[in-house]
Design a protein that fits this description.
Order of helices and strands: EHEEHEEE
Radius of gyration: 14 Å
Helix content: 10-25%
Distance between the termini: 31 Å
Length: 87
């Protein structure tokens, strides 16, 4: 399951985010979205977990909880829209 995490502290590292979610199950990837020009965190990211039950448990446990001094928002990520095909 792909999980969306928002309102991250700009200083939160991938390792910190992975550690928070790994308490609930296997994390397969962590991405903190960064500004292309500055490299600074945009304050949100994505976590992938292999087991949906574990992912749902992590979402329930971590949503609106504090991480690195900020209350984060955690919810299932919306799937990317399909390409329109208009080239």
């Amino acid at each position: 399951m792909n999980i969306f995490v928002a309102k991250l502290n700009f200083k939160t590292r991938k390792e910190d985010l992975e550690a928070a979610f790994a308490k609930f199950g296997q994390v397969t990837s962590v991405k903190i979205v960064r500004d292309k020009e500055t490299g600074r965190s945009k304050g949100y990211g994505f976590i992938e977990m292999t087991n949906d039950n574990e992912a749902n448990h992590a979402i329930a446990a971590l949503n609106e909880k504090e991480l690195d001094g900020k209350v984060i928002v955690v919810k299932p990520a919306n799937p990317k829209p399909a390409a329109s095909g208009n080239y």
